[in-house]
Amino acid sequence: MVEGSLQAAYRYCQELARREARNFYYGFVLLPPEKRRAIYAVYAFARRCDDITDDNLEPEEKVRRLAEYRRSLGQCLGGHPSGPVFLALRDTILRFRIPAEYFWQLMDGVEMDLTVRRYPNFAELRRYCYGVASTVGLICIEVFGYREGEQARQHAEDLGIALQLTNILRDIREDAERDRIYIPQDEMERFGCSETEILEGIASEASVRLMRFQVERAREYFEQGRRLLPLLPRRSRACTAVLQGIYSRILERIEAQPSTVLRERVSLSGGQKLALAGRELVRSLMA
Length: 287
Known about the structure:
The protein is mainly alpha-helical. It is 77% helix and 0% strand. It folds into two domains: 1-100, Farnesyl Diphosphate Synthase (Orthogonal Bundle); 116-287, Farnesyl Diphosphate Synthase.
């Protein structure tokens, strides 16, 4: 009965990932079955957490729900999971010996979206990126397996920051509609770009130069993050390479037309993502 409930919990997480993961799902399917279902559980936990801050709820209700989610995480880590996501997550944590601190740090990062709408400098933005993205990468490599210990963990952290910086650029229009600006304020001032230009999607010379600067920094983090790939098992490497490839391609599109993200979201088609997934799987198996 317990095993049946656990299998149902993992199926629930898989369905949630299939429905919501979009870019990430193309990488997930390349993993071996046991690792794949563990990643579904991790994704489901992170997605549920993130959805609370993005839902159209009153701020007080978001605070209440995140506090409740935090309590549920504590119960899960203490051996008393409730609901399918935490049931699957508990099994994944035990099976792959994932440090609990990463999950708390992820929640800390997500909670920043409740109170922070502007970032004074990149050091503060990097702290946010670590919380919402690098922690997920650090969790994932515990599932994947890796060599070179601290070196691999640093590269996973860098790759997470690269992905989140790309997300920030891709979603700049959507975030502006929520009165959120993730571009560091001191850099906006340095380039002579006003908040009005970001919030209203004005493609001025200053805002375009600012976008190019953000692209260049994200690329530098991708260069560091790519060094993780040789330290992973082959199929885990393929999964990671697909995610890195999809987001790098999005970044290339933004670089080609930096004014576009001020007006609309930049993305890849399903066919393009599938082609990337197939290519990276072949590369990883031949490496």
